[in-house]
Amino acid sequence: MISNMKNTKLQLIKEYINLKIMLTSIGFMLGIIILNVIVNPRTLMYIDSITLLAVPLAFLGLAELIVLVTGEVDMSVGAGLTLANVVSVYAYLYHGIGDYRFILLHLIIGLAVGIVNGIIVGLLRVNSFLGTLATSSIWSGLALVILNKPEGPIPNWYYRLFMDGLWGIPMVIIGLLASLLIWLYFRFNKISLHFYASGSNPYSAFIAGINVNLIKFIAFTLNGLFVGLAALFMTGIIASGDPKIGIPYTLTAILAAIIGGARFTGGVGDGVATICAAIGLTFMRNLIFSLGVPFYQQDLVYSAVVLGLLAVVMYLRGGR
Amino acid sequence: MGEMWRLEGLTKSFGPIKAVEDFTCSLEEGRIYGLVGGNGAGKSTLVRLVTGVLKPDRGRILKEGKELVIRSPKDARRYGIAAAYQEFSLVPDLPVINNLLLNIEPTKLGFIDIDRMIYKVAEFMDKLGVNIPLDKLVRELSPSEKQVVEIAKSLILEPQLLFLDEPTNYLSEEQREELFKTMIEIKNNARTTIVFISHRIEEVFRVSDQAIVLRNGRLVDIYDLGKVSMDEVVKAMVGELAEEFRGYKYVPKAAVEAVSGKPVISVRNLSVNDKVKDVSLDVGRGEIVGLAGLLGQGQSEFLRAIYGLLPYEGAISLEGRDVKINSPRDALKHGIVYVSGDTLEGVFLLRSIRENISLILNLWRGLHKPVLSKLEKEHAVKMIKKLNIACRDPDQPVLYLSGGNRQKVYLARGLTVNPKVLLLDDPLKGVDIRAKKEILNIVKELAGDKAVLFFSSDIKELLPIVDRVLVFFEGRIIREFKGEELREDLIMEASIKGTAG
Fold first, then answer.
1. Range B252-335+419-501 has CATH code 3.90.550.10
2. Cβ distance A211 to A266 under 8 Å?
3. Which chain A residue is nearest to residue B107, measuring alpha carbons?
4. Inter-chain touch A190–B95, beta carbons under 8 Å
5. Cα-trace Rg, chain A
6. What is the CATH superfamily name and number for domain B3-239?
7. Which of A5, A188, A199 sits opposite B118 (nearest CB)?
8. Is the Cβ of A2 closer than 8 Å to some Cβ of chain B?
9. What is the CA angle A180-A217-A183, rounded to 5?
10. What tens digit of pLDDT does each residue of B456-491 get?
11. B91 → closest Cβ in A197, A209, A211
12. Checking phi first, is residue B368 left (phi over 0); if not, alpha (psi -120 to 50) or beta?
């Protein structure tokens, strides 16, 4: 009986961290990195700065995942990131808010964006695809009104943070570790089970006494927090406010979550796998660059590859 | 002892249909009540009203004389009310253990306390004598394992009022015995009040102390099962023969007399998963065969299999020729048409009546050829007249039609191909009285050169037009009624008693 229980515990933890999908995703990540190194051995020298580029995408992937798990989708993560970036830089440039409030502002805008989406989807019961597509346009439009072209700089101490790291620890480590810890905190928290239950079968969740609409609202709020964190890293990386920075990230973030096991029908998906997928996708972008694709064709090639990957993942899963 | 729970004047309507009407009854602690009644008697609705899944239009629920405020299943849980539902309330993507403890997970500082979780459930399942791997995802379980988890999920809450809605459906003989033992144990030890629903009437008699009989959403009476016989309870469920059918005399139809040796459709040993078992039947030209029985006894699956919607084993032959039907397209090619009572499945609400009716008019014409809108319109107008579909014009979207007229549109489409075999799957259920009569008349008129299989959950409606009635029970045909035997009370009795009768 005791050994049986130990075994059950092990199996359960395996189920919670979704070992199979996690290993697939790690495989995808390592495969792309190795391919990168083969094509261009100099990649190894820049491996930290390329990985740093993956941090915002990792957070956006988690933002997308947490909503997909509950059976909804968020088309506005890229635009939300842009708004948080632009508003914060604007506040520094024109209102001198350059102390710790500069960080706080990113998170507040992210949260606000998430809460608005949460109200629209969770409380007003608007279809999440349409609702967030609409808010996406609004955030982008708003960002353009605030800054109509890329502007800088950002506070010097924040810029140095990304150059020198925090207490000597590079920001890429801090970013990945933070995303990992936040995810695991969520996954082993009671509420995550209610997220998965609400997405897997809302009616059953309701019968078990779970307020499904409230869960969706909370999911979008947490999603907003992740968007804010993503923006924080994006600002540090580009060291400016850019009203066009986030748009292409929405599709990539969805792809990261899908490779991380999520489905549009909800109820499944893993965060660690999503983070690995985000790193893999970032290196893929680098790979396309390394292969010598001309600058103006990179978007085209990258998007085509993303679409192809999406099709492959969907096809492989279709069998089940 | 004494009264523990009281349901007072519970009433619930769905549109014009009164599912439960003015239901009042008292339940004592430490007792098992069998809740029985025919199709549409309101059993499952009653369960949902008490567990907070549905809101009653009127009425209240009292516990020890105090009125309870039940706005959601969450509230009901708090008052010690739990249920195992007929259609299950499980989450497919979570492991068994998290389904059992959904929303009552033990935590340590907000984290899931996996040790305590496993300890609690392992002990509980041990006591129940159930052996299902706790870490397995529910989506990977067999139907009988799911049923066990659904029951265990309600028991682990240690409820004071427990509803078991058809809990024995997927259970084996031994598992059933195990369940009855458990029920009697918690009734005696935990003084739980149990309300037990089963289509197997002999089970209800075995474990229940009293039987609550429902008919058409109303309480008929509560019987002490020690004192009455099974026949008396069944009589109460069936009720008096309906007024309009009391004088009904069977009249052999001329058309049927003409049915000669060769049947139009002949089905041999047809099985569908666990739902239909070894069903064989023949239907002759001009014959209307009614399918009866309680809901969910395999009638729908049987008809859907013949139309190619479900994979089947067994043989189907049409006019002596063996055919294999893999899809509705195959079925249509052979002149088999299926019309169900689920109009949402059958019609395209936003498209016009004309398009809905004429959809399969040009089924074999090739995709690249243009739509013959004139022909379509002529055909639609003809059918609208024939079936007396109430509408402004043929181009009106079906959305604006009443339930009865939507059903007629669905039927009209089926008739487009002039089928040899017409399969009707409870098409009268959401339809008003007038449309019901009209549809019955149309079927009767059209049957001349067709074979008709007609399932109705309310068999008395069919009696005026059918030649034979076959009663389904747990996937098999258990009785055939014809001639003078075609009486509602006899058929109902056979349906309820099943193989016990």
1. no
2. no
3. A190
4. no
5. 20
6. P-loop containing nucleotide triphosphate hydrolases (3.40.50.300)
7. A5
8. no
9. 5
10. 988 888 888 888 999 999 999 999 998 888 888 888
11. A197
12. alpha
